[in-house]
Amino acid sequence: MSGTTLLAPLYGLYQKQLGFSDLMITVIFAVYAAGVIAALLLFGRLSDGLGRRPVLLAGLVLAALSAVCFLLEGGLPALFTGRVLSGLSAGLFTGTATVAVVELAPEPRRNAAMLLATVANMGGLGSGPLLAGILAQYAPQPLRLVFFVNLALVAVAVVGVLLIPETVQAGQTVPLRPRRLRVPPAIRSTFVPAAAAGFAGFAMLGLFTSVAPSFLHQVEGVDNLAASGAVVCAVFAASTAGQLLMPAFGVHRALIWGCAVLAAGMAAIIASLATSVLALLVLGAVVSGAGQGLSFRAGVTVVGEQSPPDQRAEVTSALFVVLYVAISIPVVGVGALAVVAGLRSAGLVFSACVALLAGATALRLLLRPAGEAETGAG
Predict the structure, then answer these.
(1) What is the pLDDT of residues 244-257, one digit of tens each?
(2) Which of 240, 342, 337 is nearest to 294 (CA)?
(3) Sign for the pseudo-dihedral over CA of 340, 342, 345, 348
(4) d(CA 158, CA 342)
(5) How far is CA 195 from CA 57, 76, 207, in A?
(6) What is the mean pLDDT of residues 79-108?
(7) Residue ranges covered by each domain of the chain
(8) Is the dihedral of CA 349, 353, 356, 358 positive or negative?
(9) Cβ distance 84 to 35 under 8 Å?
(10) Rounded to an integer, what distance in angstroms lies between the CA atom of residue 103 and that of residue 340?
(11) Among candidate residues 94, 291, 281, the one with its CA nearest the CA of residue 197
């Protein structure tokens, strides 16, 4: 997963080398989400028929091909191709690797295995920008060395996948057609606030993994790529902590508190962009990351609990498509607005919109908790 976020602190270097705008940065980032969504819809059930290991190996091959695209330095076409391949690999990993980890664990340790998968996922996403930032700042060949390191990590992962036992009896035929995206009317009062909370949180993640390094450079005056990578890493680390803390809050309280904390974090980011105070940006990154983690895990949990068992995968897929739309499309708007009004103004507008959405969702959940309509009707 770390390979999917390696570009976060490097966009500025590509921008100088190729001469594209802040809008193009967000478009390059957004095509990654298109790859994830395509993989989730087309290949989400593939490992149930082929087995976990073949799908994981296919994801690793796509990850390696993505790194090769970036090593070729073929301009924008290579960047776009690399990002699409990276998104496809992440889409294959997201469900398959999590299920494989849980299936490989002994029954008494299944919950611990799920937490391990969560930490591995978010930890990988967070370590990518940190690794890329450190190597780009302090090692030679800033746009090449990190992808050689990525290929080495992929090779280690391939060996690991080849060594683990298969947990699925292969042979079942799984049709390669898009999953349906239908939410039953009975759970829409649960799905809508969970999706709104997730949309706000993933839009924030999209901001930090695409244009936050540009904010640090143009607004905060920070040119150190390692620092840029560390700020992005802090968001994912805080998200991991928020997800791990969710059971202590309970699902419904975690959904409300997650939205409220996310709104507070975005307020700190707004203050940072308005005053050019770096400490406020770092504070906002940590606070909003924690809120995103709380609300994300709570939203996925409550939607899974209240979905009909025979439609649970379908509804969960619909939720994840909403989340990956959120991580991509809104930040393209930031890039477009930055061309017209400047990066600072674009960041202020975007952060205010995310804060308003998170705050409104928290208020709605306070007035009517998720799933209340079904309980009353029941």
Answers:
(1) 999 999 989 999 99
(2) 240
(3) positive
(4) 44
(5) 31, 33, 18
(6) 89
(7) 1-168, 183-378
(8) negative
(9) yes
(10) 51
(11) 291
Chain segment 181-193, per-residue pLDDT in tens: 778 888 888 999 9
- Contact between residue 119 and residue 101 where contact means Cβ atoms under 8 Å apart: no
Find the helix or strand (DSSP H, E) in which 166 lies: none
CA 218/CA 228 separation, integer angstroms: 12
pLDDT over threshold 60, residue 372: no
First to last CA, the chain: 42
Residue 378 neighbours by CB distance under 10 Å:
7
Distant-in-sequence contacts of 17-22, Cβ < 8 A, 24+ apart: 17/143, 18/75, 18/76, 20/76, 21/335, 21/338, 21/339, 22/211, 22/214, 22/334, 22/335, 22/338, 22/339, 22/343, 22/346
How many of the other CB atoms lie within 10 Å of CB of 147?
26
Q: Residue 373: what pLDDT?
A: 47
Stated pTM of the model? 0.89
Domains 1-168 and 183-378 share a fold: yes
DSSP assignment of 169-221: -TT------PPP----GGGHHHHHHHHHHHHHHHHHHHHHHHTHHHHHHHTS-
CATH number of 1-168: 1.20.1250.20
Secondary structure class of 291 (helix, strand, coil): helix
CATH superfamily of 183-378: MFS general substrate transporter like domains (1.20.1250.20)
